[in-house]
Write a structure and sequence with these properties.
The complex is a heterodimer of chains A (456) and B (431). Chain A has 456 residues and is α+β, with helices and mostly antiparallel strands. Chain A contains 15 helices and 12 strands. Chain A has 2 domains: 197 residues, Metalloenzyme, LuxS/M16 peptidase-like (Cytochrome Bc1 Complex, Chain A, domain 1, 2-Layer Sandwich), CATH 3.30.830.10; 188 residues, Metalloenzyme, LuxS/M16 peptidase-like (Cytochrome Bc1 Complex, Chain A, domain 1), CATH 3.30.830. Chain B has 15 helices and 15 strands. In chain B, helix 1 packs across helix 7 and helix 9 packs across helix 12. The chains are: A alpha+beta (456), B alpha+beta (431).
Chain lengths: 456, 431
C-alpha cells in the first residue's frame, strides 16, 4: 500500500444521523441498564457492544490509565468462566471480539452470526458483575500494557508530541492525561486499585447495551432481560465537573525525539456539542473543521500543500462528541526548506481568513454534501452504527441527537462559521507544540548472519 | 439467469450463516474483466478498477508504480487537483487509490442519484483515462513522496518490514518497499511515469469491480465507459517465480527505540496454492486468531512479553510472505524470540490437535457471514477473486474447503512449506 504522510488528526465530520431509516428501539430495565437495538437486515450478522460510562477522564491522579488496564483485565476471567474462556467461547462460535477505551468510555464488543447473540449476552452479563481479579494475572498484563505504551507512544515521535501537547494545553481538565496512563502510574497499579475501579463503575446502571444487526428488537430485549435484568445495580456517584480554567495566554512547547521530519500541532480551546451554548456553535465548528480539512479539495491541502507548496501534509480535527470541552486541532509537516514556524504562520493566516471573510457558498455546499453522503455510507457498517449510538449515549449527549445531525449541519451559515472562528480561535486560547527531530543514530553495518545459530 | 435478491444482500441457506453472493462476470469489448454484485439495500455504489501494476512492476525503479498512482488525481483532462477534488466532494463522492505488491487500484464510492453519480463517474473516468502528468504537479508529488520516505525512517516497524522483505525476496520484484527508496525516487522523471501508465493502465490489464445499488445494464454501461478511453494494450508477463530460502538468516538493525520489533518468516503461500486452505487454517491456530492463538497465548497471555504477537500468510500471485511478528522491550528480545521460535517449531513438528483444529474451523466458518457483510468488504473480496481469477463460486465454496481441512493436511503442509531452519529473522531496536 502506498505510504504517504497521513494526516493523523483528520477526524472530520465523523458522526452521522442513522435513525431515519432503521429505527432505534430503546428499553431500560429496572436495574438501570439501557438497551438500544437497531435492526439492519442486510446481512445475517449482529454486533453487540457493552458501553460503560468510565474512561480516562474519570481517573484521579496516581492511577491514570486504570480504565484501560481494567479493560485488559476484563479478559482475565470470572469464577464461572476462568481466564481465556471468554475469548475461547466467542472464537468457537465464529465471533470476533475486542474492547476499546477512550477518555469518556470503555466498551466491549462481539460480532457474531445472528443466531449466536445469546452467547455474547451470557458472557458480558457475567463479567459485568463477577470479574475475578487476580494479582498474578495483573502482574503479567501490566507488562503487556507497558509494551502497548512503548509501541503506541514512547517509540512514536508524533504520538509522544501529542501526549505532551495535551499535558500542556489542559491545565486541570482530565483530558490532560493520556488514555493509556503515565508510565509510573501504570507501573504501580495494585490489584486493589483495579478491584475498586471495577466496583465503582461496572454496574448495569452505568452501562448501555447496543445491538445492531439482523435481529428482532423485541426478542433482543427479552434475551437481554434474561441475562442482564437480574444484575444488581450500584450507587454511581456523579463525576466532578473538573471544568478547565480559562487559558490566559499562548502556550508553547517543544518535544525532542529521534525523528526525521519536523512537525507542528496547534490547538484552540473550543466547546463540544455537549457543552456549547448555544449548541449551534458546535455544529458551526464541525463545519469549520470540514472547510479546512474535509477532503483533498478542502482549504488546507488545496492551499498549503498544492497552492503554496509549503507543507507535505496538513490536517485539522475536531472531536465533536467529547464529554468535556476539547481542542480544535491543526497540524502540519513542512515541505523541504520550510520550517515549523512557516507552518505556524500559514495556519494562523488560514484562521485569520476564517475570521475576516465569509466562507463561500460552494465550500459550505461541499461540506453539506459530504455529510449527507457519509450518512448513507456509514450505514454500510453495523459496527460503526453501534459505535455511534453507544458513544452518544455514554458521553451523555443521548443517541437521539444523531437524528438531528444532518439537519443541524445544513442550517449552519457562513456567518456562524465566521462567528465561532472569531469567538474561539483566539491566540490566548492557543497551544502550539513543535516536534524537534533528534538524530537517529545511523546504524553501524547491520549485523547479519546467515544460517546456524541465532546469536544475540 | 439472474438471481433475484429481494432487498437482502445475502440469502440465508443454513443456520450457520452460510451466505451466498451472486457475482456476475463479463468482459468489455476492450478485453477488461468486469465483476458485478447488485446490493440494493443502500443507495450507493462502489467502483474499483484494478491493474496488474503494483510495485512488483517497478523493475529497477523502486516506487514508480506508487508515484504513478499518486499522480493520477493531481490533474486529468481539463481539471487540476482542486477541481478534481471539488467535483467529487461537491456530490459527496469519495475517491482513493494506491498500490500493493501485485495491484494498482483506483476506487470511488458515490450515491446513486443520477446527477450525483454521473458527475462522480465522469471525474473518475477522466482520472483513469486522461491523467495529465504535469511537470509541476510531478515535482510536488515527488517531494511529498521523498518526505514520506524520510518519515518512514522514524519508524522501527517500517524499517523492520523493509529489511524483512529484502531478506525474503532479495532481488525478486517483491523484495523492495512499495513506495520505493530515496535513491530511486529522487531520479524519476515525469516521462518514466507516463511510460509506466501507458504500458500498464490498459484495458487488457484491467479488472473492474462494481458493487452497489445499480442494475446490470447500468453496470455494463459504467464498465464500458470507464475502459473505453484506455488503450487496449496487453497483459504484462507473469511475475517471475520466487526462489525459496535454503537456510535461515538473522539481521539486527540498531535503532534508538525502547522496543525491539521482531519479524520472522519466509515466502509462504500464493493465491492458487493447493495447500492454501491447510496453511490458512493451520496458521489460524498458530498465530492468526486475534485473541486466541498459540503465539498470542505463549508470548502475551502466559508471559506478558508483548502487546501483539501473531503470524499471517499474505498470499500474492507468487508466494507472499509468511510473517511472524512481535514487539518487546529491548532487553527481553532474546527471550521473546526464543519463545516465538519454540512455538513455531513445536507447531510445525507436532501439528494441531483435533480439538484445536475443530475450534479453528468453527471460528472461521461460524464467522463467515462477517467476511462479506458490508459493501466495502465485498468490494475487497470480489477484487481479489477477479484479479487472481479465482472461481466465481469462491465464496460459496470457502466454508466447505475450510471444513475439508484435516489435522494431517495441516501437518503435512506445514512440514513441507514452513521449516524453522528456513526462517529469515529481522530485529530492529535498541540495546
Amino acid at each position: 500500500m502506498k505510504q504517504r504522510l497521513a494526516a493523523v488528526l483528520l477526524l472530520c465530520p465523523v458522526f452521522t444521523a442513522y435513525a431515519e431509516s432503521g429505527k432505534v428501539h430503546e428499553h431500560t430495565f429496572n436495574n438501570g441498564l439501557k438497551v438500544l437495538v437497531k435492526e439492519d437486515h442486510r446481512s445475517p450478522v449482529v454486533v453487540s457492544q457493552v458501553w460503560y460510562k468510565v474512561g480516562a477522564s474519570y481517573e484521579p491522579g496516581g492511577i491514570t490509565g486504570i480504565s484501560h488496564m481494567l479493560e485488559h483485565m476484563m479478559f482475565k476471567g470470572t469464577k464461572q468462566y476462568p481466564a481465556g474462556e471468554f475469548s475461547r467461547i466467542i472464537a468457537e462460535n465464529g465471533g470476533q471480539e475486542n474492547a476499546f477505551t477512550g477518555n469518556d468510555y470503555t466498551a466491549y464488543f462481539q460480532t457474531l452470526e445472528k443466531s449466536r447473540l445469546e452467547i455474547s449476552f451470557k458472557l458480558e452479563a457475567d463479567r459485568m458483575r463477577n470479574l475475578d481479579l487476580k494479582a498474578e494475572e495483573l502482574e503479567k498484563e501490566l507488562q503487556v500494557v507497558t509494551e502497548e505504551r512503548r509501541m503506541r507512544t514512547d517509540d512514536q515521535p508524533r504520538s509522544k508530541t501529542q501526549e505532551q501537547f495535551n499535558a500542556v494545553a489542559f491545565a486541570n481538565s482530565p483530558y490532560k492525561n493520556p488514555v493509556i496512563g503515565w508510565p509510573s502510574d501504570i507501573a504501580n497499579y495494585k490489584v486493589e486499585d483495579l478491584q475498586a475501579w471495577y466496583q465503582q463503575w461496572y454496574a448495569p446502571n452505568n452501562a448501555t447495551l447496543v445491538v445492531v444487526g439482523d435481529v428482532d428488537s423485541q426478542q433482543v430485549v427479552q434475551l437481554a432481560e434474561k441475562y442482564f435484568a437480574g444484575l444488581q445495580p450500584s450507587v454511581i456517584k456523579p463525576i466532578k465537573p473538573q471544568e478547565e480554567i480559562e487559558q490566559q495566554g499562548l502556550r508553547k512547547l517543544t518535544v525532542k525525539a529521534p525523528a526525521k521530519l519536523p512537525y507542528i500541532m496547534m490547538g484552540y480551546k473550543v466547546p463540544v456539542l455537549k457543552t456549547a451554548k448555544p449548541e449551534s456553535e458546535a455544529y458551526a465548528l464541525e463545519v469549520l473543521a470540514g472547510i479546512l480539512d474535509g477532503g483533498n479539495g478542502a482549504r488546507l491541502t488545496s492551499r498549503l500543500v498544492r497552492g503554496k507548496q509549503i507543507a507535505v501534509s496538513v490536517g485539522a480535527g475536531y472531536d465533536f462528541t467529547s464529554r468535556l470541552p476539547e481542542l480544535l486541532m491543526l497540524e502540519a509537516t513542512p515541505a523541504e526548506g520550510q520550517t515549523v514556524f512557516d507552518m505556524e504562520y500559514a495556519l494562523k493566516d488560514e484562521v485569520l481568513q476564517l475570521k475576516n471573510e465569509l466562507v463561500s457558498a460552494d465550500e459550505l455546499q461541499r461540506v453539506k454534501a459530504q455529510v449527507l453522503a457519509s450518512d448513507v455510507y456509514q450505514k454500510d457498517s453495523n459496527f460503526y452504527q453501534a459505535m455511534q449510538l453507544g458513544m452518544l449515549e455514554t458521553v451523555g449527549i443521548g443517541w437521539q441527537k444523531a437524528d438531528e445531525y444532518v439537519k443541524k449541519i445544513n442550517q449552519v451559515t457562513a456567518e456562524q462559521v465566521r462567528d465561532v472562528a472569531r469567538k474561539y480561535l483566539i491566540e490566548d486560547h492557543l497551544t502550539v507544540a513543535y516536534l524537534d527531530p533528534q538524530p537517529i543514530t545511523e546504524a553501524p553495518k547491520p549485523a547479519k548472519s546467515i544460517g546456524g545459530h541465532h546469536a544475540f | 439467469m439472474r438471481f433475484k435478491l429481494i432487498g437482502l444482500l445475502f440469502l440465508l441457506i443454513t443456520q450457520s450463516g452460510w451466505a451466498t453472493v451472486k457475482i456476475e462476470h463479463w468482459q468489455t469489448n476492450q478485453g477488461g474483466r468486469v465483476y458485478f454484485v447488485n446490493t440494493p439495500a443502500l443507495p450507493m455504489v462502489d467502483v474499483r478498477v484494478t491493474f496488474d501494476a503494483g510495485s512488483a512492476r517497478d523493475d529497477a525503479q523502486f516506487g514508480l508504480a506508487a508515484l504513478t498512482s499518486a499522480m493520477l488525481e493531481a490533474g486529468a483532462g481539463e481539471w487540476g487537483a482542486d477541481e478534481i477534488a471539488n467535483r467529487f466532494e461537491s456530490v459527496g463522492a469519495t475517491f482513493s487509490n494506491g498500490v500493493s505488491k501485485d495491484m494498482a487500484w483506483i476506487s470511488m464510492r458515490s450515491l446513486v442519484e443520477k446527477p450525483l453519480l454521473d458527475k462522480a463517474l465522469a471525474t473518475y473516468q477522466t482520472i483513469l483515462t486522461k491523467p495529465r502528468f504535469d511537470e509541476t504537479d510531478f515535482q510536488r508529488e515527488k517531494s511529498r513522496t521523498l518526505a514520506g520516505l524520510k518519515h518512514r525512517e522514524e519508524s522501527p516497524a517500517a524499517l523492520a518490514s523493509i529489511a524483512f522483505y529484502k531478506a525474503l525476496y532479495h532481488d525478486h520484484p517483491y523484495g523492495h518497499p512499495d513506495d520505493g527508496v530515496v535513491q530511486t525516487v529522487a531520479g524519476f522523471e515525469v516521462t518514466d511515469l507516463k511510460e509506466f501508465y501507458q504500458k500498464y493502465y490498459v484495458a487488457a490489464n484491467a479488472v473492474v469491480v462494481i458493487v452497489g445499488d445499480v442494475s446490470k445494464v447500468n453496470a455494463e454501461q459504467i464498465a464500458n465507459d470507464l475502459l473505453a478511453g484506455l488503450a487496449i494494450g496487453q497483459k504484462p508477463q507473469e511475475i517471475p517465480a520466487v526462489t525459496m530460502p535454503t537456510q535461515s538468516s538473522f539481521e539486527h538493525i540498531d535503532f534508538p527505540s525502547t522496543q525491539t520489533h521482531v519479524l520472522a518468516g519466509m515466502p509462504g503461500t500464493y493465491r492458487k496454492d493447493p495447500d492454501y486452505f491447510a496453511l490458512y487454517v493451520g496458521n489460524h491456530i498458530l498465530g492468526g486468531g486475534s485473541l486466541v492463538s498459540k503465539l498470542f497465548d505463549e508470548v502475551r497471555e502466559k508471559r506478558g512479553l508483548a502487546y501483539s504477537a501473531s503470524s499471517q500468510f499474505a498470499p500474492l500471485f507468487r508466494q507472499g510472505p509468511f510473517t511472524i511478528g512481535l514487539q518487546t522491550r529491548n532487553d527481553q528480545t532474546n527471550k521473546a524470540v526464543e519463545v516465538m521460535n519454540a512455538t513455531v517449531k513445536d507447531f510445525v513438528e507436532q501439528g494441531p490437535t483435533e480439538k484445536e483444529l475443530t475450534a479453528a474451523k468453527q471460528n472461521i466458518t461460524g464467522g463467515f457471514a462477517m467476511r462479506v457483510d458490508t459493501n466495502s468488504k465485498l468490494t475487497d473480496y470480489i477484487t481479489m477473486i477477479g484479479f487472481y481469477q479465482q472461481p466465481l463460486d469462491y465464496l460459496d465454496l470457502f466454508q466447505s474447503k475450510i471444513d475439508a481441512v484435516t489435522v494431517e493436511a495441516v501437518k503435512d503442509a506445514f512440514k513441507r512449506r514452513i521449516r524453522t531452519e528456513w526462517l529469515q529473522t529481522v530485529t530492529v531496536g535498541g540495546k
